[in-house]
Each structure stands twice: as C-alpha cells, then as structure tokens.
Amino acid sequence: MEPEAIKLLAAGISMGLGAIGPGIGIGLLAGKALEAIGRNPEARNYIQTNMILAIAFCEAIGIYALVIAIILVFT
Prior knowledge:
The chain is an all-alpha fold. The protein has a single domain, classed as F1FO ATP Synthase. The chain is built from two helices and no strands.
C-alpha cells in the first residue's frame, strides 16, 4: 500500500473515531438536559446554560480530531 493511501486512511479513521465520542456525548447530554427541564421547569435557564457549555466542550473534542486529520493529510 502506498504511503499516501495510508495517510488518507489514517486521517479518515481518526476523523471517524473522533466524531463518534462527541456525537454520543451530545446526544446523551441533550437527552438528560431535556429530562431535567421536564422535571424542574423553573431551573430551565440554569440547565440550558450548563448544557450549552458542555456541548461546546464536546464539540471541541471533535474539532481536535478534525485538526489531527488535517495534519495527517497535509504532512
């Protein structure tokens, strides 16, 4: 197998695996936040603020995977 093909395969695998974690995390996070809002609607603003902050951290992990994949492709 050519080195270029191996680099592209590694980039694809790193992006694929790097997107699974944040996707699952955001799904679980949103589901639990909606459950919490359903149980305690008065705390909606507090729950929503924390949910958005946690989603941003999950997305950062996906962006790190994207950066690694781009580095693998262009080096």
